[in-house]
Amino acid sequence: MSQSSNFANARADETAEATQYLTVNLADEEYAVDILAVREIRGWTPVTRIPQAPSYVLGVLNLRGVIVPVIDMRLRFGLAREEYTATTVTVIVTVAGRNFGVVVDAVSDVIDIVPSAIRPVPDMGTAVDTEYLKGLTSVGERMVLLLDVDKLLQPQDAQILEAALPAAEEVKAVA
Amino acid sequence: MAKILAVDDSASMRSMVAFTLRGAGHDVEEADNGQAAVDAARGQRFDLVLADVNMPVMDGISMVRELRTMDAYRGVPILMLTTESNPEKKMEGKAAGATGWLVKPFDPEQLLATVGRVLG
Amino acid sequence: MSKVDLAQFHQAFFEESLDGLDAMETALLALEAGSDDAELVHTVFRAAHSIKGGAATFGFADVAAFTHVAESLLEEVRSGRRAIDKPIVELLLRSGDCVRGMLSRSMGGHPAANAESEALRAALAAMISGGGAPAVAKAVAVSEDVEGWDIAFRPFDYLLKTGNDPLRMFRELAALGALTVDTSLDKLPSLEAMDAESAYLGWTLYLAGPVKRAAIEAVFDWVDGDCELSIVAREAAPKAVAPVAAAPLAAKPSRDAAANSESSSVRVGIEKIDTLLNLVGELVITQSMLTQFADGVDASQLELLRHGLGQLQRHTRELQESVMSIRMLPISTVFNRFPRLVRDLTQKLDKQVNLDMRGETTELDKTVLEKIGDPLVHLVRNAIDHGLETPAKRRAAGKGDTGTLRMEAFHRGGSIVVEVSDDGAGLNRDAIVAKAIERGIIATGEGMSDEAVAELIFEPGFSTAAQTTDLSGRGVGMDVVRRNVADLGGSVAIRSTPGAGTTFTITLPLTLAIIDGLTAAVGEEIYIVPLVSIVESVQLGADAIRSVAGGGELFRFRDAYLPVVRLHDVFGCEGSRAKIEEGIVIVVEGEGTRIGLFVDALIGQQQAVVKSLETNYRRVAGISGATILADGSVALIADVTGLVRMQARRKAA
After folding, report:
1. Is the dihedral of CA C8, C9, C10, C12 positive or negative?
2. CA–CA dist C620, C606 (Å, integer)
3. A10, exposed or middle or buried, with CB in 10 Å at 0-12, 13-18, 19+?
4. What is the predicted pLDDT for the residue at A173?
């Protein structure tokens, strides 16, 4: 992979400041989430199930008096659900004023990434669909994928699901 | 710095005037009509009074007349907040004993400059 | 000092302007009704004046320009040059509406002026005698080539009493250039004759430098007429002056942008805050008392501990009630729009109506208050449009020309009741039955009680374009009124006497924020069913269920057969009992329809603070919200009206 074509851009980006990211583990891969979007990190606690929710929406929990939905990231991306262990973590994120929780295997650390270090994601069969990734970077020996949290809770299919809801109820009534 | 009495029935105007003057280190008390201003003025001696003309209960010009009958306020600067479209009010204010006026609309900088002028 | 940001005063200006516009409207309506109270005119003038001043100060130029013209018209009325008449009132009422819109748009960051405001502004200007006065041309001296100025200044004796100080003026002059001052003592009396507060001195000053005359005049601006003053330039004579006409206000047609004017703040009376503070203080004391006990509790202290806990519970409950009361606002904020509405409607329809409003101080929660407006507006429109007759018809019926529309609010039990009643024609049974048959709602009116016939008007599809006039705008139909009220957890009933009048009674919970609910177990989950919707809970025997073709289940309750709604089915819960005799059926009522909710067991009853599911997630059918249980976990609250509708759709399928 030739990097020479990126040199000119890289030099321009070098002066840009680094952004902090929280890295999380999921199914042997590492993902980075903009630290500004992260509100809180909690251990896993049981949630209250919600009717008619997609399978990856586990339910809602009480975040100091506010009701917050929680999604399982493995289920979100079509992976098999794993048993929750002591390291399982719920990361509470804020996107466009909405709060929601994301359950991941574990939390890693906080790293700095400069814009110049971010590369586009090639089609390489990651568990997470490239549509939800903002880019890719290397931290030492580790390869870290930058997650686009904006897309986690309101993806295309959830919107279609919402629109289909009344029709689904009709179908259910007949059944 | 100075003790200033700001009189206006519009809460937002009063807030703006008070905020601006406090920011410059002055001690500001507020009143929302002429009568309330006179009552406050009896309680303590202010170094400067800023008053709107159109107010319920007691308007600004009556307030000036009232204040000027009080010993403590015979030479205290009293500025009216008037609109440029009312030159008669300026004359009335002067006749009642006002020191001068500040023309609305004014911005914080103009307010501070005029107050600075008067307080010396 | 850093620059003062005026944006922080915008919200306050906006709110007080709205208050001013309300006061203006009330005063204008009173003036139109014939009141000759001069104070009313002053009120209207002051409101316009304040808004103009604030708008100009805080940077809303369009609003200032518009209000300026309105103020000029009002000045003519106030000074007696014009009498107030119907056209002026009408124009001013519309102007008030226009300013509301302009303010809204301004607060939303959109251009305030639009085609409508420009047209109104022109109309106002046209009303003013002689049309809009052209701006006075001011002579402006072009810059002069002067060496300096000779100034002679002798204040009149009372000048010091106006608070003006010659020293201050000289300091200002000195800031413009090099100043020399000569004092004249010729008017100074002897010490005994001297009054310390009088001015006896005179001065001759020379100000060096190419200073503008205007700058010097500005220094003496305030004392003009209180002194002898001459300002003479030295050296070159001033050039010819050219009058400059002020530019007329440019008309700015702007796009009409949607404005969001919902205020999310609540204004609170100071007594409520004080009560709150006191209760918090008591709470702190009780808490610290208990903390002390935690350090060494033995049996003898147990009684004191119990006492402390009892106190804590009382104070906490009082605190909660106090906080809730802060959210309670008087219904007058909603009632206030009706005098204007009734006036406009009666004018358009040529009817005479006396509006009688009672119980305006009745308080209800802000959440309910915000949503009760539209249903009430519809009921009022309906009463004036259909209920109340024209003066001619009323006379023919032996009634007075003027009809009465009464709006009354009061508390009853744990609810708030709002009644809208009129002394009009009442419901016409035959006409309703005929229309219902025409719309296919019923086949015949035979055997229907008067109450049942009255209920027909709430059927969807009952009112159509033929019946509604252009006044009954959006959300037409009594069914929408009932739906809106039901969404608030309330109900609307109707009572009518033909020829005498009709009364609509809306019953609402005092607040939406806290509900009393029954906690029920459904499978492994817990759901809350609002008490206000519960009729009764029953335990059915194994043979109590009748099956219906299509899979439905019915059971007998009092004199009717009601459908069974198995919540574990609707909500997809696991681990539920399948047998009817092993569970409980909660009979609930929503929108006048009853259904039975089958749950596994009743756990208890509790007050639940309603939390939104939509804030961070989305709306879920059959669920109205969530609440937090004592153990911190979340329980969902069943939406009875929603479940009733879901059941109806099932039935229809």
Report:
1. positive
2. 23
3. middle
4. 39
Cα dihedral C347→C349→C351→C356 (10° resolution)? -70
Q: Are C555 and C544 in contact (CB under 8 A)?
A: yes
The DSSP bridge partners found for residue C548 are C552
pLDDT per residue over C56-71, tens digit each?
Answer: 889 899 999 999 999 8
Nearest CA of chain C to the CA of A61: how many Å?
6
What pLDDT is attached to residue C293? 64
For every residue of C306-336, DSSP letters joined together read: HHHHHHHHHHHHHHHHHHHHHHEEETHHHHT
Tokens of C80: 């007696």
B13:C53 CB<8 A: yes
Q: What is the pLDDT of residues C574-632, one digit of tens each?
A: 888 778 889 999 999 887 789 999 999 999 988 787 888 887 888 899 999 998 887 77
Contacts with A172 from chain C: Cβ below 8 Å: 650
Question: C123: exposed, middle or buried (C-beta count within 10 Å: 0-12, 13-18, 19+)?
Answer: middle
Number of Cβ atoms within 10 Å of the Cβ of A87: 12
Q: How far is CA C604 from the centre of its chain?
A: 39
Collect contacts of C533-536 with beta carbons under 8 A, ≥24 apart: C533/C489, C533/C588, C533/C589, C533/C590, C533/C640, C533/C641, C534/C586, C534/C587, C534/C588, C535/C587, C535/C588, C535/C589, C535/C594, C536/C587
Name the E strands within B1-120: 3-7, 27-31, 48-52, 78-83, 100-104
Q: Which of residues 583-612 of C touch A (CB under 8 A)?
A: 611-612
Buried b (16+ CB within 10 A) or exposed e, A40-70: eeeebeebbbbbbbeebbbbbbbbeeebbbb
Report the residue count for chain B: 120
- How far apart are the C-alpha atoms of C12 and C103, rounded to whole Å? 12
